[in-house]
Specification:
mainly alpha; Immunoglobulin-like; 3 helices
């Protein structure tokens, strides 16, 4: 590749990369610099696991009972127990809770 062509290609890449570089620099400034090192995060989602202990058990059942029959405008309504998102914790949600009762994630 000729020097001129390399310079043109290099310039084209630099021009296209400038917005990304500016956004990265802006993000670094907002975050106070970038952190280095490894990060391992474990995320689990199990419907009915109210307390996040990776199992649906009696503790979760108590919370479900307290929310059962509530609608989105009630104070005891818990959105994450509304499986189908219809704004009511009812028999449909109970069926899904029952299906998972006793499940323990590794």
């Amino acid at each position: 590749m000729s020097r001129l062509l390399r310079r043109i290609c290099s310039r084209a890449v630099d021009v296209r990369a400038q917005p990304l570089i500016r956004r990265t620099a802006d993000l670094r400034a907002r975050l106070g610099g970038l952190q280095s090192g490894d990060n391992v995060s474990n995320v689990h989602r199990l419907f009915g696991d109210v307390n996040g202990d990776k199992s649906v058990n009696g503790l979760d059942l108590t919370a479900f009972r307290n929310a059962f029959g509530s609608v989105a405008t009630d104070t005891n309504y818990v959105s994450f127990l509304d499986f189908n998102g219809d704004g009511a914790i009812n028999g449909t949600d109970l069926s899904q809770f029952r299906n998972r009762f006793g499940v323990v994630l590794p």
